[in-house]
Every structure is written in C-alpha cells, then in structure tokens.
Amino acid sequence: MWPQVGRRGPSREAQKAPALWRLLFHVLSPRPADDAAALPTPEAQARLVKSALRSQGYPRRALVQLPEDGSQGSRELLLALSWLLARGPLLERLLAQIRVRLGDEMPVCECEVLASPGPPAPRVEADGCVDIRHLQWLMGKLRFGWRNLITSQQEHCALLGKVHSYTRGCHSDRSLGHLSVTEAELLRDPEGGRQLLRRLESENARLEAALEWRRRELVFWQWMDTVLDACPPEASQPTFLPRIPERGAGELELVARELQALQEELQAVVETRRAAWEARVGGWGPGWKATQRASEEAVRQELTALQRAWERGGGLAQPHGPHRLVRSEAGTLGGPGLRATEVIKALRSREACLEAALRQLQGQCRQELARLVGALPGFIWILPPGC
Amino acid sequence: MLPAGCSRRLLAELRDALDACAERQRQLERSLRVSRRLLRVWEPAETPALEPTPGPDTNEEARPPARTPSPQDLKELELLTQALEKAVRVRKGLSKAGGRDEAPSRKSRSIVSPATTASVPPRASGQAGRRASETKPPRGVRQTTVPAKGLPELRLLSVGDQTCKARGAQAAKPEPGLRDQQMAPSAAPQAPEAFTLKQKGLWAQLSSTETGDSMDATTTAKTQFLRKMQSGWPSSRLCAAEVEAEVGRLRKACSLLRQRMGEELTADPVDWMQEYHCLLTLEGLQAIAGQCLHRLQELRAAVMEHQLAPWPEGRLPSAPSSCGGGADSIWSPQLLLYSSTQELQTLASLRLRVAMLDEQIHLEKVLMAELLPLVSTQEPLGPPWLALCRAVHSLLCEGGEHFLTILRDEPAD
C-alpha cells in the first residue's frame, strides 16, 4: 500500500481515519510486498502506531487519546504523518526499502538485521518458572539452527555461483556481465516475468508520484500550518502512564555494567603504568617537553578518530546496505564496486575480535564460578578436557 | 527451578534469538527454492552429457564455435520446430485467426539459425518493432512482450539451445509451450531493461530535487511546522527511540574502547616514546570511558524520571537506521565483486559467523547477569544446587557444549 501522497491534496473529507491508521502502520513498519505474514487487526495496528509514535517522541497528547476503531481523528493522524515526513527523509527511505531488486543482493553490514526483528509475535508469556534444562535445550536448538543456516547458506552460494557463471555474457549491461537469479527466472518463467514487469511498472509509478509530491510539497506544508493552527491548543504536559521498562532498562544496565568494568580495568592499568613512568622520567630534564607535547597531540587525534566511529553518523565510513553480487574473474574487472576480498578481511578481523571478547567473558565466568564453589569443601570439580 | 522473573526474561531472550534464526532460515529457503528450480532446468539430470558449463576461463567469443551443434541435432531441431509450427497453424486454423503462417515459421527459423553461427550482428530495434507487429500472439500461445533481438538474447540462446536439445532428446512433445520457452528468452531481457533505464532516470531526478532554491523554502516551512508541533513540549526531553539509539552507540563505544585497550596492552613498546604514547592512549581511553559512563547515567536518570518505556509492547521493527547504504546507493545499487564460488561462500559464512558471535556474546552477558547471582545466593547445597552449578558452568563457560563432572569427595572411612 503505497501512500500516493502526491495525490493527497487539501481535501476536506472527514472519514479518512481508518485509511490513515493503516497508512501510518505501513509507514512505521514497512514490509516487503511478498511478506505473507498476517497483518494485525485494525485496532491492534492503531495501538502499535500510537506506541511507535510515542516512543519516537511525538509531541502531541491528542494522538494517545484517539479511539482505535477509526471513527474519528483524521486531522490528528494527518498531523502525525506530517510530523514523520518533516523529521527525516521518510519518503526516500521507504522508496529504497520497497524497491524491486533485480540482482542477487547480499548485505555487507548487520544493521538491518538488528533493527528489524520481524513481525511482533504476540507472545503468551508463561508466568511459570522453568527448569534450567529447558534453557539448555533452547540453547542447543539455537546452536543447531545456526549450523543449519550456515549449511543452507553454503548451498545457496554454490547455486548462485553456478547461475552467475552459466549466464556469463548474457546481460546487456557490460559492467554486470551475467544474470542474477531474478533475471534468469524471467527467462525461465514468462508468467513470473510478467509479474516482475508489473512490479517494475508500479515502482516507476511510485517514483513519478514521489516527483509530483516534491513539486507540490511547499503547498502541503503551508496547508499543514493552517491545519495545526485550527487545532484547539493542547493542555499542559501530559503525564505518562507509568510503565516498568523491562528489557529496555536491562540493556541500559548491561552497558552500564560493562563500561563500569572497563573503566575500573583501565584505572588499574593506568595507575601502575603512570607510577612506573613517573619514577623513570623524574630525573629527565625539560628538553623532552616538546616530544611529550607532540605525543599528546598525536594521541588526542587518534582518540578523536576512534570516537568518531560510534558517534552519530560516524558509521557511514564503512560500507553499508545490500550490494548486488557480481561475479568476475580475478583481475578482469577494474570498475567500481566493493571487492569481496576486502569485505572478507574486515569480517575476519571482526570475527577475531568477537571471539576474543567471547573467550574473555567465558573466562570471567569460569573465575567467578570457581570462586563461588571453590569455597565449599567436599567436592571435586573435574573440568571438561581442553580447559 | 529458576525464579519467575528470571525465567521470563531468559525465555524471552532465547525465543527472540530462535525466532530471528528461523526467519533467516525461511528467507534463505525461499531463495534456495528459486535457485534450485532454475538450475534443474539447465542441468537436467537425465542427460549428463550435455554439460552447459564452460570452464571459468573460457573466452566468451570462443564459446559458440566450440559447441556447434552437429548436423543431426540441427536436423532434429528443425523437424521439431516444423512440427510445432504445424501445431500452431492447426490451432490458429481452428480459432480462425488466419493469415499469419509465414511469420511464425520465419521467426522460428531465425531462432534456430543464430545457434549455428558464431556471430550475428545485433538487430536494430526497427526490425524488432516490425517483428513485433507481425507476430501478434495468436490465441492460446503464450507470447509475452516485444521480441526485440539483441546480443544478449543471442548468447542466451547459445546457452539455451542446450536445453532445447535436452528437451528434444527427451520427448518430441509438440506443445506450443516449448516454443514459448524459446521465444520468451528473446522477449524478456529487453523489457525490464527499459524499465530500469527509466527508473534510473527517475531516481536521478528525485535526487536532484533535494537541492535547489525551491527546497530551501520547503525546508523552512518544515522546520517551522515542527517547531509549532513541538510547542508546549520541552524540547530537551528525550524520547524512547533516542535513548535506545544512544545506548546502542555507547555499547559500540564500549566494545571499541575495549578492543583498543587490548591492542595497547599487547603491544610491545620498543622505545620510551612508544611507551609514553601507550600510556597516554590508555589514559585517554579511561577518560573517554568515564565520559560514556557519565552519559549513560544521565540517560538512566532521564528514563527513570520520565518513565520512558524504551521498548514499547509489540515493538514495531521500524528503527530508522541510517543503513540505506548511504546516499548514492539509493539510485544505483552498489556492487560486490567476487571471483569464485569459494570466495562467495567464505564471505557468506563469515557474515553469518560474525552475526552468530554477536548474538552469543549478547546471550552470554544476559545469562551471566541472570544466572550468576542465583548460584551465589542459593544456599541449600544439596543436589539441586550442584545441578544448577553444573548447568550454569556449561552454559556460561562452555557455550553449552561441554559439561563438567562433580565428584563428592568422600572421606576414606
């Protein structure tokens, strides 16, 4: 359901609330066109929209008070949509997310995966206690799942490799050189090809609508200004319904604990080293002050660069997003594009780093457990081989 | 048995992880189905002699002559095509479309002939247009779009003729369906290309509208609107999504700081200058860690004070991540070049491994936070506690893969 926003002019229809709820729902959680998962009921959609807007900081209380059956509130919903549009490049983001992809794509980062945990499953929370063996079983299931995933992925890559090498020379775009699975499917299955063409057609229509929207955007904002003025003034700050943040606060606490531990470790190391350094350097003359300042400057620059890696917008230096796979024999293609070898190198170093982190955590646990149980006499703890 | 709150939290985490894994598997299965089906067409199991793959270093130009069909194969193919034409004629005669006999036969012959010649000049689009009007699809025969010819189609046919041979060898079933498979290749590659060319133009137009004078007026109008919306609402108040984003950034900061610390601690300074550099770096890291911690405490206070629910129930997967791949990728997809299947497999499995390690580390931290306190606080030292210790050790220290053995140290009497 694509918001043909360009066509939505200053109209005065009052009964647009249900459509606007749906629209907001899809805007706030866009799904690919072929996602067959069932949509929540309209009431549930409305609740999710309210919750998502609130968590993004929507500054009007009137939205929370709207009935969820869609009987009224089209003006407020329109304000909400405008608010989302004004805050960021919503249109471009949505267009990019639901565009038709002709190539075989592989993401080179894990951002999308972390951000989209799939459709929210209404989980029936078992309030009972579980045995730790159930947890062990679940962990085992997870490990098995990952192993399966890796095997399937290997097969998929082998198949992709075959398709790419078989269709070498078939693509009219020389920089690509071969067909992707989607494109090869076009040949095999004319009906599927027609569907793909229809999707491309509708994407073109969307792009044209987006261009239309751009042309008339100013009028829209001027109109929204009048709509906002026409609203009754809001009361003072709303009071939040008190909610006990469950897993959310958990994340914050985890990070706090980690940072605390890190700081303590650094403190210990720094104290000893600084003391040792001062002892050595105590007798040195003022001649080395210049070098000292140079070192300080160099370190300051390095650390600023390090900080940029996690600051807002700092992650853009690394490659992101899905990339189209293109097979080219080594050395033949000098054109633009990310090389697999580089990505592999980066991934290997990240893998090493993560493995070290995991081992360190496990070691910490071992120490802690040894401390907890070692105090008890009367038992011999035989560790598994290899420890 | 674990306490209720702990159970609930741990179950939620593990189920999330299992769901995410299952979702990935589902998507992968979907892609696998398509690819398998595709390759089944090109690698028919019953005719192993017709291996269509050239070696990876075979020259493109050299391919067609290397596989010039034998005269007998050509003859068979010709016979097959004639049979198909006849079938089509009969059908057309029945449906009274009439009068188009030569066009299909001309077209089919023209399909067969490129297979024999090494190089055919690409047809002009004018010819294609004419052919399109001539071969208006007769009723019942599924012909798709404009059968414009071009070089890509040629190559496709040289690969595709293997399939034709295979089919011809299997059974001489004169169905129009087979001819459609032959015809469709000629049609398909051009049509999406036309659309994607148009698309590129549209995307470029869209990007160009982002700058310019008209946009300044729009931006001003937008900012004014936002300000009006925000009035009566203290702008310094954080929203839940922002808190979440910052916590994520700080988590990344922590891991990067720790990584850097590890590098500095393992480095072997050669001279005093390097030593000093190392010391300064560590002090700098400590300062930054302190700043991050301070910021986190501010966030914690904000969450408590305003009762922000950072993770609303039934959370929508809508994090507006900046991962669109950057500005450029929106209009033209970025490429990832690989040189062999082995390389691609390595890349893909490394990606999965990194994701898996990320998840393992997260779960490890969660389990540590929940289970270690249990071991230390549960006082009854009977067998249940021992079992708990054993399970916790296995989960936390061995990744659930190994178990330790506990022996009771009985005195010798």
Automatic annotation (TrEMBL), chain A:
Domain Tubulin epsilon and delta complex protein residue range list? 57-229
Listed Pfam families: TEDC1
InterPro entries, from UniProt? TEDC1, TEDC1_dom
Which superkingdom is the protein from? Answer: Eukaryota
Q: What is this protein called?
A: Tubulin epsilon and delta complex 1
Q: Which organism is it from?
A: Equus caballus (Horse)
Taxonomic lineage from the root: Eukaryota, Metazoa, Chordata, Craniata, Vertebrata
Q: Which gene encodes it?
A: TEDC1
From TrEMBL, chain B:
**Which portions of the sequence form the region Disordered?**
45-74, 91-148, 165-191
Q: Please give the organism.
A: Equus caballus
Spans of biased composition, class Low complexity? 181-191
Q: Which domain of life is it from?
A: Eukaryota
Q: Where is the composition biased (Polar residues)?
A: 110-119
**Which InterPro entries does the record cross-reference, listed alphabetically?**
DUF4693 (IPR031518)
This chain's protein is named Tubulin epsilon and delta complex 2
- Pfam families for the chain: DUF4693
